[in-house]
Amino acid sequence: MSGAESLFDDWIGEGEDSTANRNTKKVQFKDGIDDSLANMVVDSSPVSGVLWKDKLLGGLVSKSLDGAVNLDLEFKNGGIRRSNLNGILAIVFSDRITKILIKGMELTMVVKLHGRNIGYGDLYNCITSLWKPTKSFRPMDVANRYYLIRFQSRVDYDLALTQGPWIVFGHYLTVQSWTVDFNPSRTFP
């Protein structure tokens, strides 16, 4: 027998020691309906486990930034105005509410990889290895290959913003502070 035939026989289980490598577990099939299946006991209390969203975001959903306490906003009359323009709901916030919302975006930056598309997971892994943040961060895919990165630490934010240049997969990664004027449908300066 040639070498090739011997390899082929071993591969399909005809060679030496092939019986020792076989699984000897027996399977039994039942023809009728088993009474134990009809009388199964089901635990009616839900099992508390890790939610998929929490696992995806790394448990960041319930954490606040820099240990800040979540504020219950008190909406006064005139704080929020709703209107309907041609069947489209418009919401206008007062200056006080707008300042609070903008303050929450303080540690957010705009990131874009030029010359190449990159997915959420790849971007997260690459910038984690580049920046080595001390606290976790949250990227958010917006549109037109822009991502918003929200940091939990001012030190990590400043390092990512001031160091560089950052290169991912041989392409430049632009990093800029988020501003109110950011619009992903236009070229961001």
From TrEMBL:
* Transmembrane feature ranges: none
**In terms of domain of life, where is this protein from?**
Eukaryota
Q: Which InterPro entries match?
A: At4g02000-like, DUF4283
Q: Where is the DUF4283 domain?
A: 106-185
Query: Which Pfam families does this chain map to?
Result: DUF4283
Q: Could you tell me what this protein is called?
A: DUF4283 domain-containing protein
Q: Which organism is it from?
A: Gossypium armourianum
Q: What is the lineage of its organism?
A: Eukaryota, Viridiplantae, Streptophyta, Embryophyta, Tracheophyta
